[in-house]
Amino acid sequence: MSFHPTEQQLKVINHINGHARVLAIAGSGKTTTMVYRIKDLIEKHNVSPKSIRVMMFNRTASVDFKKKTEKVLENQQLPYISTFHSFSKYFIEQAVKDKNLNRFSEYWIEENEYKIDILLHTIIKQVEKEEIIEKDKVEIDEIKMSISLWKGSLIHPENAGHKHNNDYVVVYKEFEKRRSEQNALTYDDFIPLTVKILEESKFYFDKWSNKLDHLIVDEYQDVNYGQQKLIEILAGNRANVMVVGDDDQTIYEWRGARPEYILKEFETTFTSKPHTIYKLDRTFRFGPLLAQYAHNSISLNSTRHSKNVFANDVKNGTDIEIVYSGSSSSKGIFYTNDKLANIVSKLVKEEQVKPKNIRVIARLYSQFTGLETSFIANKVPYKIEGNIPFFERREVKILIDYALLFENIYSTLNTKRIDTLLNVINTPNRKINKSRLESFLKKRKGEALIDILNEYSTDNKDIEPLLNFLIDGEVYLAEQIENKTYKTSTFIEWIYKNSNLQTHYLNYYGEGEQAIDKINTTLGFIRFCLNLEMKPNQLHNHIENLDTTMGLEDEELILFSTVHKTKGLEFDYVFIPDCLDGNMPYISDSQITVYNKSNPELVTKLSDSLESERRLFYVAITRAMKKVYIGTDDNNKNKSSRFLEEILYSKTRNALFPIVTSGILNKNWLEKIKDVLGHKKIIENIKLYLNNLGENQLRQEVDNLAISVPEEEFSYKNAYSSKRKIEESIEIESTETKKTNPWDNVRVK
User: Fold this and answer.
1) What average pLDDT does this structure show over 451-463?
2) Is the dihedral of CA 402, 408, 411, 415 positive or negative?
3) CA-CA distance, 621 to 249, in Å (whole number)?
4) Best CA proximity match to 373, nearest among 337, 401, 323, 339
5) CA 302 → CA 243, 484, 610, 713, distances in Å?
6) Could you tell me what percent of the chain has a pLDDT over 90?
7) Torsion 306-641-684-33 (CA) sign
8) How far is CA 50 from the centre of its chain?
9) DSSP states of 69-113
10) What is the DSSP letter of 183?
11) Nearest 5°: phi and psi at 552?
12) CB 318 within 8 A of CB 626
């Protein structure tokens, strides 16, 4: 394995004694550096592999690290390499083997994780029936996240608190009681149980603590309270602890990560040895242009360690292309998405880029909807990682189900229509007794739905608002058809507005990310319907038959992923659709809702919202090795993301492009860089790149030009809102979309 370390990497590799923080930017080769540090410790300093432990964050990273270490160490013994959870699982199994812990009947992980959902669903239904909690106030996904946060912060059910909904605490307590009765462990139990045993058992504490000479922790910016406690116990006072991470890539606070550890508390927690800070600020992934764009933006964060973002290869041409619609219309973002879809088609069909080397990345799932629509229209095969296509989501199915009920209210009742009705009765919440209505409906199959509901309403007044809405919808639909003014998109928007679904989402989820995502997905679906001329049953059948994968394997699909799912990954091409202010950044007042009643400080407040969002943008663009395509628009309805101002796109490109492309560096170029003389972070990197090229005279001239120019403080040219504006409707006007065929027939425009 050929490795020629930089001066920065060598300093890390040669570190022996004392604690250390390694601040490593995206693509800086931190994994390879850590592997060679281990090699150095074992071969040059005779450190036993058994006294070195490496703690990783996920299985993929752990496997990759182990493979690289095996290759570098050749036939030598490996150090201990594991994830936090795999170590904890091993520890628990050893305690069982020692007969100091009862054997668990089941592990609810991987293929058995569904059992968590089953138990939670059972508990919620039971405590609702017993009127211990309100109906429809606890969602499975939300309670799972809350339980994960409580456990990650080592908060026992008796100490669990929730800022907005104590029903979650009730469910957590009952879940833990029944899980314990079933003698099962979940993924989230591994670390808390391990820490508990280590803290309470002198035997295990003495066996595991203070036994290592070197402890290396990867992705330290993402550790939560429980993981930090485990690190502290294993290290004791003996281990030289080296933590590796990047505070600029702290994007998991919402699931319990505590960036204060890498920012400041590492030094105050591990006090047994002196401390050193190393920086790996040279990237091998992308070139000077993208490096500078990223640095220009992320350096505006105030809560961070100061560090550069510098490209190791001055001739690497990784760039950003900002794609506008070229239209002054508020529908411009539609055209932008069509352009992005066409670029993807060209890359695959004309440049033979493999789909797996292209990734669409966004902040919110709803940010994909516009590009999904263009992909569907142009028959570009794709898949949403970690979610389903927008048209399969519940918020869309609700609209379609209402439409079906309007069209079929005078039709005879069957099982399918019962399911359709039950799906919408309490969305929005009408407090209709679902089980009572379901029982009544099942006895009346074969009769007209309207007649059954009218009869039911005689003794059950809770159904009247829904019944009135269904009648209004049927009348509206009939009038539209009779007057020949029916449009699918207009009809679906009528349902959305008149059912008060937006208010429902805001009341149910609060004005946070989930509500906004559902509202935007709904509006995106209405846009999707702009070019459809289908009655409700036709629309339902059309949606049912859509297959975005077109039967292809994952490697042949364009994958769409949120930023959170792409951290640590890299792709040749990155596409960021709908990069509008309100999507990126998505400004909210969100805070972690769970806390410890006995010690509220154990779950901290989230970072400043704008700084957190800026980190997400930084992570998104730094996944690219060749090019980033950013789709946006700027008109009276949509405003481009403020981050596109922050990257100083034109100024940076004018100054750096000639350096990257071996352009002519002369007096004309010196004139161009006068625009960036006040941006010292750009000038300093220009001088470093000129040094690398041996352009010493030019470097001196740049120095002379810049020396008398004061630092120019960044300020926005445009005004941006401090909070995301909730879109209430769309302009119902069809846009032309030219359809193309799948990959083997795709026509590039």
Assistant:
1) 94
2) negative
3) 12
4) 337
5) 22, 59, 11, 14
6) 81
7) positive
8) 36
9) HHHHHTTSPP-EEEEHHHHHHHHHHHHHHTTSSPPPSEEE-GGGT
10) T
11) -90, 160
12) yes
When mean pLDDT is compared across 64-68, 528-532, 541-545, the lowest value belongs to 528-532
Exposed/middle/buried for 468, CB within 10 Å: 0-12, 13-18, 19+?
A: exposed
Cα–Cα–Cα angle for 40, 45, 50, nearest 5°?
85
Q: Cα(260)–Cα(605) distance, rounded to whole angstroms?
A: 11
Cβ–Cβ < 8 Å for 154, 229? yes
Tens digits of residue pLDDT in 60-119: 899 999 999 999 999 899 999 999 999 999 999 999 999 999 999 999 998 999 999 999
pTM: 0.90
CB atoms within 10 A of CB 645: 18
- Which residues, at least 6 apart from 289, have a Cβ–Cβ distance to it below 8 Å? 317, 318, 319, 320, 652, 653, 656, 657, 660
The closest of 746, 361, 723, 315 to 513, measured between CA atoms, is: 723
Residue the block writes with tokens 């669990």: 160
- Reported in sequence order, the residue ranges of 520-588 that DSSP labels E, i.e. its strands, are 558-562, 571-576
- The DSSP code sequence of 577-630 is ---BTTTSS--------EEETT-GGGSPPPPPHHHHHHHHHHHHHTTEEEEEEE
Q: How confident is the model at residue 42 (pLDDT cuts 50, 70, 90)?
A: very high
Please tell me the distance from the alpha carbon of residue 373 to that of residue 122, in angstroms, as a whole number.
37
Sequence-ordered list of residues with C-beta below 8 angstroms from that of 318, at least 6 positions apart, any chain: 285, 286, 287, 289, 290, 311, 624, 625, 626, 627, 628
**Do β-strands 160-162 and 282-283 pair in parallel, antiparallel, or remain unpaired?**
unpaired
Cβ count near 399 (within 10 Å): 23
Burial (CB count <10 Å: 0-12, 13-18, 19+), residue 260: middle
Q: Show the tokens assigned to 591.
A: 């805070």
Is the separation of the CB atoms in 19 and 274 below 8 Å? Answer: yes
Crossing angle of helices 114-129 and 140-152, in 10° steps, is 110
Residue 210 in 3-state DSSP?
coil
